[in-house]
Amino acid sequence: MESLRLLVLVAELGSLGRAAERLRIAQPSASRRLSTLERALGLVLVDRTRRGSRLTASGQIVAGHARRVLDEVDALLTRSDALRNRREAELRVAASLTIAEYLLPAWISELRSRRPELYIGLQVTNSEHVPALIESGDADVGFVEGPHLAHVMSTRQVAEDRLVVVADPGHRWARRRQPLSARELSSTPLVLRERGSGTRQTLDRALHLAGHGRARALLELGSTAAVRGAVIAGTGPAVLSELAVRGDITEGRLVGIEVAGVDLTRALRAVWPVGRRLVGPAAELVAVAGEGSRHQRARRTPERDDGAR
């Protein structure tokens, strides 16, 4: 590419020496570049005389093509700079409902405090649909709750969540002294999130691993808030993220029910296309999410009593 630029400058300036000076290279080096280009093309491009350098007829034709090539390259570089600057100033995120409602606001706030010029767009859907938004280019990075991905994605765990069984205070389970069994949980109709949600996937997988099939639906609803409201209204018990019901349990609107023999913990993961390196604001947001999870775990860990033995 630099040899073409040199040839165009020789045509414009009429001197190999001035062309070399413009490119800030030594004249012998410029002469070698032109010779290499002539050998590669099998053409004599420049006549070198005591009065200067003059393009041959072939050289003038090649220089004309070279100008167009260089103009296209310059346009490409300008457009690439614009795209890079846009990428650095914009972040498009897709996230499952629970993560979007209870975790992402804090992550986004932290990232915006570090990069106040950054525009962040968020699409909220269930975990099953997040990878499709990334593959289509509608999102740069996604966050999901479910144990399964319909698409092959690069993933990184950023947090951990736990599902809890909840019922209204008047439900018979609220008076239990013994934990529920996996069989009781699987055989009782529940207020459930829709199929494809991370909460539903996690519950079905946990019951399957415990040897009791899938959850039975009393009612299927499309959001955590709707399920929570139905349980508070006395419709029936449900299994929801601890993030969503912690305050309700503390304030007595819901009762958390212990379950034996079922692992209801789940990993919350960032996802992005396989083969693509996570860079820029997307990488920063994933790092912020991981930092938030570590701080949350640290707050939950009780301080060690050095006097204890």
TrEMBL record:
Q: What is the annotated signal peptide range for this record?
A: none
Q: Per UniProt, what is one Pfam family of this protein?
A: LysR_substrate
All copies of domain HTH lysR-type, residue ranges:
1-56
Q: Which InterPro entries match?
A: LysR_HTH_N, LysR_subst-bd, WH-like_DNA-bd_sf, WH_DNA-bd_sf
Q: Where is the composition biased (Basic and acidic residues)?
A: 300-309
* UniProt key word DNA-binding: yes
Give UniProt keywords alphabetically: DNA-binding, Transcription, Transcription regulation
Q: Where is this region: Disordered?
A: 290-309
The family this protein is said to belong to:
Belongs to the LysR transcriptional regulatory family.
Protein name stated in the entry: LysR family transcriptional regulator
